[in-house]
Amino acid sequence: MSSSDGGVPTWVKALIVVLVMGVLIGGAVVSYVYHERYVETPKAVIDRHDEPVGTTGPASFNVIRQGGDSIPTLLLDLENANAKDRAKSVELLSSIKDPRVPEGLLGALRDKDLGVKLTAVTGIVRHTQLTARDEVAGVRAKFALALWEASRSTSDPLRRQAIVGLGFVVDKADIEPLLAQVAERNGHDRTLFAWAAGHAARRAEAAASGRLPEPARLPQSDEDEAAIQQEVASLLERIDLGQDLLLSSRRLSELTDVDQTLVPLAHLVQVQVIAVKGPRAYRGSEAESLMPARPSGVAPRLPGSALAPHKAATPAARPAPKER
């Protein structure tokens, strides 16, 4: 087949058009890839420490969005950056699905700075939840072993947050060892080990049906809150006496599990350490102090605030009970 204008076959002209379109499309793809790899990725990495730990804004999202491309720089931060930036890099690492992340988090748990270690505990919980459906074999066991070690720390914040972390991470086989620690520890540590055993048991039950454990329900009134608080106090007495440990621990978890839709994940472990004392402690001034700053007029995202069904007293009006 040929054309009347100059005798150039139609198929040749069609081929030329296809080639030109291919060049244009190929150029656009190359330009996009170049921009993403050599412009967007470096910019995201440069801005990685613009937001403090516990704040996930545009700068953090941009780093997380780069996925594996951000990993080498974040891992390097754990060796060379200052403590504040190391903690932020740990937080960012934990939000990325990549086989290199677990070793970075485990290394951060051995950091010399307490703030970095605490961020690593939360990071281990976050990464465990993020990779629950496609976790690499052996990673959860390594996380659990590291948290067990941290649960013997002489630092109160690290030890207690590590105990809570165990409740989010360990397998069913670790429930009995957690209950054994209830008998060996005392004070708030005993309560936390009981909660961890109860939460781990509830996680195992929920996993069997392909779901997550339900969080503690919000009190519907001041009277309802008082009843829940009284039951928590009764459970803590039973736990102290070693009575029906598994059942008591499981019920404690049911009554005090923090709702992850109401508390930022960066503060989940910290708040859960307090929440095991009951709803009044959960919405008390101690828990409120853990939450990130909010714009004026924005209600705190804690039970007992404007999000709760009943109008409760302000956090300052009901201080957390004295530590047992």
SSE map:
Layout: H1 10-46, H2 58-66, H3 71-80, H4 83-94, H5 101-108, H6 114-130, H7 139-150, H8 156-169, H9 175-184, H10 187-208, H11 222-241, H12 245-256, H13 265-275, H14 279-282, H15 285-288
Notes on the protein architecture:
With 324 residues, the chain is mainly α. It has helices spanning 10-46, 58-66, 71-80, 83-94, 101-108, 114-130, 139-150, 156-169, 175-184, 187-208, 222-241, 245-256, 265-275, 279-282, 285-288. The chain is elongated. The termini are far apart. The model is unreliable at 33-41 and 293-324 (pLDDT under 50).
Please name the defining characteristics of this protein:
single chain, mainly alpha, 15 helices, 0% strand, 324 residues
Concise account of the structure shown:
The protein is mostly helical and 324 residues long. The protein is built from 15 helices and no strands. Helices cover 62% and strands 0% of the residues.
Beta-strand content bin: under 5%
In DSSP terms, counting alpha (H) and pi (I) runs of 4 or more, how many helices? 15
| Oligomeric grouping of the chains | single chain
Largest sheet: none
Total beta strands? 0
Arithmetic mean of pLDDT: 81
- Element pattern in H and E: HHHHHHHHHHHHHHH
Query: How far do the termini sit from each other?
Result: 94 Å
Radius of gyration: 26 Å
Coarse morphology: elongated
Low-confidence stretches: 33-41, 293-324
Q: How helix-rich are the residues, as a percent range?
A: 55-70%
Structure class: mainly alpha
